[in-house]
Design goal:
The structure holds three protein chains of three kinds. By secondary structure, chain A is of the alpha/beta class. Chain A has two domains: 19-151 and 313-381, Periplasmic binding protein-like II (D-Maltodextrin-Binding Protein, domain 2, 3-Layer(aba) Sandwich), CATH 3.40.190.10; 153-311 and 392-431, Periplasmic binding protein-like II (D-Maltodextrin-Binding Protein, domain 2, 3-Layer(aba) Sandwich), CATH 3.40.190. Chain A contains 18 helices and 15 strands. In chain A, the strands form four sheets. In chain A, strands 1, 2, 3, 4, 5, 13 and 14 form a seven-stranded mixed beta sheet that branches. A four-stranded mixed beta sheet of chain A has the order 7-10-6-11, with helices on both faces. In chain A, strands 8-9 form a two-stranded antiparallel sheet. The two termini of chain A are 30 Å apart. Chain B is mainly alpha-helical. Chain B folds into two domains: 6-56; 69-128 and 159-291, MetI-like (MetI-like fold), CATH 1.10.3720.10. Helices cover 73% and strands 1% of the residues of chain B. Chain B has 13 helices and two strands. In chain B, helix 3 packs across helix 7 (161-186). Chain B is globular, with a radius of gyration of 25 Å. By secondary structure, chain C is of the alpha+beta class. Chain C has eight helices and 20 strands. Chain C folds into two domains: 4-234, 3-Layer(aba) Sandwich (Rossmann fold); 241-353, OB fold (Dihydrolipoamide Acetyltransferase, E2P), CATH 2.40.50. In chain C, helix 2 (93-103) packs parallel to helix 4 and helix 3 crosses helix 4. The chains are: A alpha/beta, B mainly alpha, C alpha+beta. At the A-B interface, helix 1, helix 4, helix 5 and helix 17 of A face helix 1, helix 5, helix 12 and helix 13 of B.
Chain lengths: 433, 297, 360
C-alpha cells in the first residue's frame, strides 16, 4: 500500500526528470539562445502557441523558441510542481491559475516580473492597474503576467424561459427562485422532476466550488475574495446568503441531486448553465437544431445595492527561475501579449485577453461583431476579480467545499453554522504556517 | 597457494553471469521498492510540500492523524466497503467458479468473459459504471422506472454510494477470484464427491461440507488478497464520487492521495500510508486466525 | 444380506466407447465375488453402474429383487471403497467414519458406537483423531474400508482398493479383507486387474474383457477349464503355453510340434480342424523327473532362458520357431543352449477353436 503511494511519489519526481529532462539541455546552442515555452494542453491553445512561436522565431533569429505543450494531466499544477521539484521547469509557461502561484513563489520558482524596467509601462498600457496590483504577492513583488480572463456568467435556454413565461433572466435570488419553480418540472408525470433550473456540479472537490459558492460570493459581496491580509474574510452575511441560496435550491429540488451523462444544458434537461466564455464555442458546435440561448449576469441577493461584479477565472503567464535568459523570456512574454496575438487568442480560443478597452479597440471590433455572445462576456471583464494570493488557498477551498456539501447539497447543516465552521477550519489552516 | 583449475574459473564466470541476470530485478527493487520505502519512512517525520525544503516535525504527523476525524472516517468507509465487498466477492466468485466447473455449453467463452473486466483498465470500467449508475439516464434506473419503480440515487446517497462502489468493484475483480477458485475446485478429487454422494450428501451438502473445507486454503488466499486490494480502494471513488457525498466514499487511500497531491502534505500522507499498512497487516493476521483451518494436518 | 442381479446391462459412453455389453450376472447373498480383467475392460464402470455413479444405457439392475435403475445412489444402500481411498482430507478419521451416519441423522451415541466398532474391526482405534494426511497408505485404506463398514450397507463395492499399496502390504490387506468378509457376512463385489488377488480372494470370479463377461466360475474351475483363450491366457502366472495348429487324424499338428490327442477329445474334433492347443507350464515335465503319466508326448527342445526361482525353475524353451515354457523342479540339471526332452501331460491339454477362441 504505502509502497504504492511512494511509488506514485517517486513516479512524480521521476517523470519530472525523465520527461522534462530535455528542457534542461536547452539554453545556448551554436551561440543562439534557446527558450522553452509550455502552453496549456488543450488543442486551441496549442494551435495558438504554435502560431505565436512560429512568428516569434521568424522575427527573432537570435532567440529560438521551443514549444512543448504541458503533458496531459488532471491539473497543470501537479505537472508544474513536479517540474519545480525536479528543477526542470520551462523558461516560460502560460495558462497558470493564480491560485497556485502562491505555492510556486514560496518555493522560489518564479522570476519577479516587476524587476524588468519596462514592466510597469508595458503592463499599464495593456491591463488596468488595479488588476495588476491584485496579483502582487505578500512580499511586494509581482510574479505573474496577467494574460486572459473568463468572466463567469449564466447561459440560459431562452426557449425554456419563454415556454415558462419568464420574461427576462432573473436578476435577484428571489427572481431566480421563482423562475426555478416554474422551470423545474416533471415532464413525463412519473412523480419525479426530470427538468431542473440548473446543474451545478455536486462533487465535493474544492475546484468545483469556484463555479458555485465562490463566484456567487464575489457577486453577492461586490467583489470580495476569501482572504484579507492573509486572514479569513468570508465569515460574513454575504457568504451565509450564498449558502442559503444554494441550500434552498437543492432543498426545493431545483438543482438535481443526480449525476448526468452528457451535457444536460444542451439536452434541455436544465435551463441555466453557469459558465465562462469557453463554453460558447462548445455550445455553438454541439447545440441541437432550434436550440436558443443567451447570456446574463448571475443573480444577486435581493438587498444587494452594489455594482455588477463576477469571478474572472484568470490565467497568467510566468517566467521560471530556472531560465538563464530572463530578459529574453520577458521579451517573448511581451510579444505574446501584443495586440495581434491577443486577437488570435480571441479568434482561436474564444478567450478574453486581460486588456483595457477591449470592446472599443478597433482591432477586436470585427471579432465581437461576429460573436455577440462573446461581447457580453467582454463587457463584464473589467468587473471581475480573481482569487487570493495564498499558498493555502486550495485547502481553504477544500474546507469550504466540505461545509458546502453538508449544508447546501445535503441540508445537514444550517448555513450560518456551515460558514462559521468553514471559517474556523480555514483559520486553522492559515495559522499553520 | 591453491592452484586455479580451469573448472574453477569457469565456475566464477558462471557466478558473475548469475549476478548479471538478477541485476535488472535488483535495480528494479532498489529504485521502485527500497528507495520509495525508505524515502517515505523519512517523510513520516517531516513536513514537505514537494517544492519547499523538508521540515523536521518528529511525531507531529501522527499527532495530527490521531485528531483528524476525516482519517478515521476514511478508515471506517474502507471498512464499510470491505464488509460488503469481500463476502459478496467470495460468494459470487465461488458460485461462478462452481458453475464454470460444470460441463456447460460455451464454458470457455464464459470463463474468458468473466475474466475480461479484470484486464480492462479500472478507469474505463469505472466510467462505464458511472454511466450505468447515473441517476437520470443510467441504464439501471431506466430499467427500474420501466418497471414502475422509482429511481435510485446510486452514487449520490450517503448510504448507497459505498455499496454501489462495492458492487462495481466486485464486478471488476470477481473474474480473478473465479480463476483462483476454479483452480481450487479442480484440485478436489472427483472421488470425494462420489463417496459423499454414496454417503448420502445432497449437492448442497457436498458443496458446503466437502468443497468449501477442501478448498479452504484458496478461500484464505482470496480473503487476504481481496482485503489487501480492498484497502487500496482508490480508482472507483476517485473517478466516480471524489469521495463524496459527504465523504461517505472517501477511502483511506483516496484521502492519502488527496492530502499528497491536492494539498501537497507529503509527510502527513506518508504517515497515513504507514498507519494504513499496519492496519492492513493486523486485519489480515486476524482474518487468518479466523478463516484458516488446518486442512491437511 | 443382499443379492445383486444385472440383466442385459449396457453402458455406452458419449464417445461411443462400450464399457458394458449385454452384461448379465448374479451376485449371491453374502457372496464375495471378484471381477477381474485388464485395465479398461469395463469392470470398474459396471461397478459404478451398481453404485449409481454412472447411468445405465440399457438393461436392469436389481438389489434384493428391487429394480434400482432410477434409485439415487444414496438410497441404494451401497458402500464403495476407492483405489485412491477418497478420504475427506479436512476431517479426522472419526469424522470420516461418522459422516454418512451424521447425514442420516443418527443419534450421537449410535454413531459413536458404530464408529468404534468399525475401528476395532480394522484396528484403527488409536488413529481416530488423526487426519488422513498423517496416515500411511495402509492405514488410509483401512479407514476407507471402515467408512464402508459403519454404514452396514447391503452391498460393499471395492474398486481396486489395494492397487496403490506396496506388494507386501497388499498381501496382508488381501487376507484382512477376506477375513472381514467372513466376519461381516456381507455381499461384496471386488474389482481388480490382479489375477492373483482374484484367485486368492474370490469365492467366484467373473472375468471381463471388452465390456463382456467371459466366464463366471469358482477359482479352481476357472483355472482348470477356462472357457476361452482370453480366460486361459489371463488366469495363471506364468501364462498357459498356446500353439497354433490343426487336427489331422487325432493328432495336433503345429509348425514344430505334433501331439497325438487323448481319448477324451475324440468325437469332439470332427467338426473343427483349425485349433489352438493350450498347456500350462506346470503340465510340461522334465523327462528325467520320470513322471508317471498315462498319456504323454515327448518333445525335444532347446533351453533359451533359465530363471531360477528357488523353489522351481522357469525354463524358456524353443523347438524350431515355436517358443514355450515350463516350470520344472530346482533339481533339474540344465544350462543355456542345451537340449532337453520334456513330456506334455496329455490329460491336462486345453483345446480351443481357433476362430471363436472357445474351449472345445
Amino acid at each position: 500500500m504505502f509502497k504504492k503511494l511512494s511509488l506514485v511519489l517517486l513516479a512524480l519526481t521521476g517523470c519530472a526528470i525523465i520527461i522534462f529532462g530535455c528542457s534542461s539541455k536547452t539554453g545556448e546552442k551554436d551561440g543562439k539562445v534557446e527558450l522553452v515555452y509550455w502552453p496549456s494542453s488543450n488543442q486551441q491553445e496549442i494551435d495558438l502557441a504554435e502560431e505565436v512561436v512560429k512568428r516569434w522565431n521568424e522575427s527573432h533569429p537570435d532567440v529560438r523558441l521551443i514549444m512543448q505543450p504541458l503533458p496531459e494531466s488532471r491539473s497543470g499544477e501537479e505537472v508544474l510542481l513536479a517540474a519545480i521539484a525536479g528543477g526542470t521547469t520551462p523558461d516560460v509557461c502560460s495558462n497558470i491559475w493564480p491560485g497556485v502561484t502562491g505555492q510556486f513563489v514560496e518555493a522560489g520558482a518564479l522570476v519577479a516580473v516587476d524587476q524588468f524596467e519596462d514592466f510597469e509601462t508595458f503592463m499599464e498600457d495593456r491591463t488596468p492597474r488595479e488588476l495588476i496590483e491584485s496579483f502582487r504577492s505578500p512580499d511586494g513583488h509581482i510574479y505573474q503576467v496577467p494574460w486572459k480572463g473568463n468572466p463567469i456568467m449564466m447561459q440560459y435556454n431562452t426557449k425554456l424561459f419563454r415556454d415558462a413565461h419568464i420574461g427576462s433572466p432573473p436578476q435577484t435570488y428571489s427572481e431566480f427562485m421563482s423562475a426555478a419553480a416554474k422551470l423545474t418540472t416533471d415532464l413525463d408525470g412519473d412523480g419525479q422532476y426530470d427538468r431542473w433550473v440548473a446543474d451545478p456540479n455536486m462533487r465535493a472537490e474544492w475546484r468545483e466550488r469556484l463555479f458555485d459558492f465562490y463566484v456567487f460570493y464575489i457577486v453577492a459581496s461586490g467583489g470580495h475574495t476569501l482572504l484579507k491580509d492573509g486572514q479569513v474574510d468570508f465569515d460574513n452575511r454575504e457568504a451565509v446568503r450564498v449558502f442559503q441560496f444554494w441550500a434552498e435550491g437543492y432543498q426545493k429540488g431545483y438543482f438535481p441531486r443526480v449525476s448526468f451523462t452528457g451535457d444536460a444544458f444542451l439536452q434541455g434537461k436544465v435551463a441555466v448553465h453557469i459558465t465562462g466564455p469557453w463554453n460558447i464555442a462548445h455550445t455553438e458546435k454541439n447545440k441541437p437544431e432550434g436550440f436558443e440561448y443567451d447570456i446574463a449576469p448571475l443573480p444577486v441577493p435581493d438587498e444587494y445595492q452594489g455594482s455588477q461584479v463576477t469571478y474572472g477565472d484568470y490565467k497568467n503567464i510566468a517566467i521560471f527561475g530556472t531560465t538563464k535568459y530572463p530578459q529574453q523570456a520577458w521579451e517573448f512574454v511581451k510579444f505574446m501579449l501584443g495586440t495581434d496575438n491577443d486577437l488570435r487568442l480571441l479568434e482561436i480560443c474564444d478567450q478574453l485577453p486581460l486588456r483595457k478597452a477591449l470592446l472599443s479597440d478597433t482591432t477586436f471590433q470585427d471579432y465581437f461583431r461576429r460573436n455577440p455572445m462573446m461581447e457580453k462576456f467582454a463587457a463584464l471583464l473589467p468587473h471581475t476579480v480573481g482569487v487570493d494570493n495564498s499558498p493555502y488557498l486550495q485547502e481553504v477551498f477544500e474546507a469550504i467545499s466540505q461545509e458546502y456539501e453538508a449544508c447546501c447539497i445535503y441540508g445537514r447543516k444550517d448555513p450560518q453554522q456551515a460558514v462559521r465552521d468553514a471559517a474556523i477550519r480555514s483559520e486553522k489552516i492559515l495559522r499553520r504556517k | 597457494m591453491e592452484q586455479r583449475t580451469p573448472i574453477q574459473t569457469e565456475k566464477e564466470k558462471g557466478d558473475r553471469a548469475g549476478y548479471l541476470f538478477v541485476l535488472p530485478y535488483i535495480i528494479f527493487f532498489l529504485v521502485f521498492t527500497a528507495y520509495p520505502l525508505i524515502f517515505s519512512f523519512i517523510l513520516v517525520f517531516h513536513r514537505w510540500n514537494i517544492v519547499g525544503p523538508m521540515q523536521w516535525i518528529g511525531l507531529g504527523n501522527f499527532a495530527t492523524l490521531l485528531h483528524d476525524p476525516l482519517f478515521w472516517k476514511s478508515l471506517w468507509n474502507t471498512a464499510r466497503f470491505l464488509i460488503i465487498h469481500i463476502p459478496l466477492q467470495i460468494a459470487v466468485a465461488l458460485v461462478l467458479a462452481e458453475i464454470l466447473n460444470q460441463h456447460i455449453r460455451f464454458r470457455g467463452f464464459f470463463r474468458a468473459a468473466f475474466f475480461l473486466p479484470v484486464v480492462i483498465s479500472g478507469v474505463v470500467v469505472t466510467i462505464l459504471w458511472q454511466q450505468l449508475y447515473s441517476t437520470d439516464t443510467g441504464l439501471i434506473n431506466l430499467s427500474l422506472s420501466k418497471l414502475g419503480l422509482s429511481r435510485v440515487p446510486w452514487l449520490t446517497s450517503t448510504t448507497l454510494a459505498m455499496p454501489s462502489i462495492a458492487i462495481m468493484a466486485t464486478w471488476k475483480n470477481v473474474g480473478f477470484y473465479v480463476v483462483l477458485f476454479l483452480a481450487g475446485l479442480q484440485s478436489v478429487p472427483r472421488n470425494l464427491y462420489e463417496v459423499a454422494e454414496l454417503d448420502g450428501a445432497s449437492k448442497i451438502q457436498q458443496f458446503l461440507k466437502i468443497t468449501i473445507p477442501v478448498i479452504n486454503p484458496v478461500v484464505v488466499l482470496v480473503v487476504i488478497l481481496s482485503t489487501i486490494n480492498g484497502f487500496s480502494l482508490f480508482i472507483e471513488p476517485y473517478v466516480m464520487t471524489s469521495g463524496g457525498p459527504l465523504n461517505s466514499t472517501l477511502s483511506t487511500f483516496l484521502y492519502i492521495y488527496k492530502e499528497a497531491f491536492s494539498f501537497y502534505k507529503m509527510g502527513y500522507a506518508a504517515s497515513m500510508g504507514f498507519v494504513l499498512a499496519a492496519v492492513i497487516l493486523s486485519v489480515v493476521l486476524v482474518q487468518r486466525k479466523i478463516v484458516e483451518t488446518d486442512t491437511y494436518t | 444380506m443382499a443379492h445383486v442381479l444385472l440383466k442385459n446391462v449396457y453402458k455406452i459412453f458419449d464417445n461411443q466407447v462400450v464399457a458394458a455389453k449385454d452384461v448379465t450376472l448374479e451376485v449371491k447373498d453374502r457372496e464375495f465375488m471378484v471381477w477381474v480383467g485388464p485395465s479398461g475392460c469395463g469392470k470398474s464402470t459396471i461397478l459404478r453402474l451398481i453404485a449409481g455413479l454412472e447411468s445405465l444405457s440399457r438393461g436392469e439392475i436389481y438389489i434384493d429383487n428391487v429394480l434400482i435403475n432410477h434409485i439415487p445412489p444414496k438410497d441404494r444402500d451401497i458402500a464403495m471403497v476407492f483405489q485412491n481411498y477418497a478420504l475427506y482430507p479436512h476431517m479426522t478419521v472419526y469424522q470420516n467414519l461418522a459422516f454418512a451416519l451424521k447425514l442420516r441423522k443418527r443419534s450421537k451415541t449410535e454413531i459413536d458406537r458404530r464408529v468404534r466398532e468399525a475401528a476395532d474391526i480394522l484396528g484403527i482405534g488409536d488413529l481416530l483423531h488423526r487426519k488422513p494426511k498423517a496416515l500411511s497408505g495402509g492405514e488410509r485404506q483401512r479407514v476407507a474400508v471402515g467408512r464402508a463398514i459403519v454404514r452396514q450397507p447391503k452391498v460393499f463395492l471395492f474398486d481396486e482398493p489395494l492397487s496403490n499399496l506396496d506388494a507386501k502390504l497388499r498381501v496382508q490387506m488381501r487376507a484382512e479383507i477376506s477375513k472381514l468378509h467372513s466376519r461381516l457376512e456381507a455381499t461384496m463385489i471386488y474389482v481388480t486387474h490382479d489375477q492373483v488377488e482374484a484367485m486368492t480372494m474370490g469365492e467366484r470370479i467373473a472375468v471381463i474383457q471388452d465390456g463382456i463377461v467371459q466366464q463366471i466360475e469358482i477359482p479352481l474351475n476357472l483355472y482348470n477349464s477356462p472357457a476361452n483363450l482370453f480366460v486361459a491366457g489371463f488366469i495363471g502366472s506364468p501364462p498357459m503355453n498356446v500353439f497354433q495348429g490343426s487336427i489331422e487324424n487325432n493328432t495336433f499338428v503345429g509348425k514344430d510340434i505334433r501331439v497325438s490327442m487323448p481319448q477324451t477329445f475324440q468325437g469332439k474334433l470332427e467338426r473343427t480342424t483349425e485349433v489352438v492347443l493350450g498347456i500350462r507350464p506346470e503340465d510340461i515335465h522334465d523327462i528325467s523327473a520320470e513322471p508317471r503319466l498315462s498319456e504323454r508326448s515327448i518333445v525335444r527342445a532347446t533351453a533359451e532362458v533359465i530363471e531360477l526361482m528357488g523353489n522351481e525353475i522357469f525354463l524358456y524353451l524353443r523347438k524350431g520357431d515355436t517358443p514355450f515354457m515350463t516350470r520344472v523342479s530346482p533339481q533339474t540339471q540344465i544350462s543355456m543352449g542345451e537340449t532337453i526332452d520334456v513330456i506334455f501331460d496329455l490329460s491336462k491339454l486345453h483345446l480351443f477353436d481357433r476362430e471363436t477362441g472357445n474351449r472345445i
